[in-house]
Amino acid sequence: MTQNLKNKIIEVCDKKIAQKGDAVGVSFYAFFKNKNDNPELLMEAATWWIQTHQLDHFEKAVKIKRLIENS
After folding, report:
1. Which string of DSSP letters, residue by residue, matches 11-60?
2. Phi-psi bin for 29: left (phi > 0), alpha (psi -120 to 50), beta?
3. Dihedral angle over CA of 10, 16, 19, 25, nearest 10
4. What is the per-residue pLDDT across 6-54, written as a single tens digit (0 to 9) for each?
5. Contact 68, 26 (CB under 8 A)
6. Terminal Cα distance for the chain, rounded
């Protein structure tokens, strides 16, 4: 996973946690705009989320942030 994508995921998780608390959930779509302007990056995130870690559609933002920070 690219460092730019890791940074974006951490940024989004931090923002969601700050707004809604530690119980807030996210999906990998949360890291992208509503239009698919970078399909390669979206597939990179989807592969990491679905194939590598076999995560559910929604996961706790704190869990995702921890996984990214430890990778």
Report:
1. HHHHHHHHHH-TT-EE-GGGGS-SS-S-HHHHHHHHIIIIIIS---SSEE
2. alpha
3. -140
4. 999 999 999 999 999 999 999 999 998 777 788 898 999 999 999 999 9
5. no
6. 9
Buried-exposed string 18-55: b where 16+ CB fall within 10 A, e elsewhere:
eeeeeebbbebebbbeeeeeeeebbeebeebbeeeeeb
- The encoded tokens of residue 65 equal 């942030």
For residues 47 and 42, give the distance between their C-alpha atoms in angstroms, rounded to a whole number: 9
Q: Rounded distance, CA 26 to CA 40, Å?
A: 20
Asked if 10 and 65 count as a contact pair (C-beta separation under 8 A), the reply is: yes
- Model pTM score: 0.89
Which run of H or of E encompasses 68? Answer: helix 61-69
